[in-house]
Amino acid sequence: MSSIEIYIVVEGQTEQTFVRDVLAPQMAHKGIYLLPALIGKPGQKGGDIQFDRAKTDIGNFLKQRPETYVSTMFDYFRIDSEWPGRAEVSRQIRNGSSLTAIQKADILEAATNSEIVKEFTGYNAESRFIPYIEMHEFEALLFSDADVLAEKTDIDVSKIQEIIGKYNSPEEINDDPAKAPSKRLEALKNGYRKVANGKTISEAIGITTIRKQCTHFNNWLTRLECLQMRVNV
Question: Same structural domain for residues 14 and 109?
Answer without folding.
Answer: yes
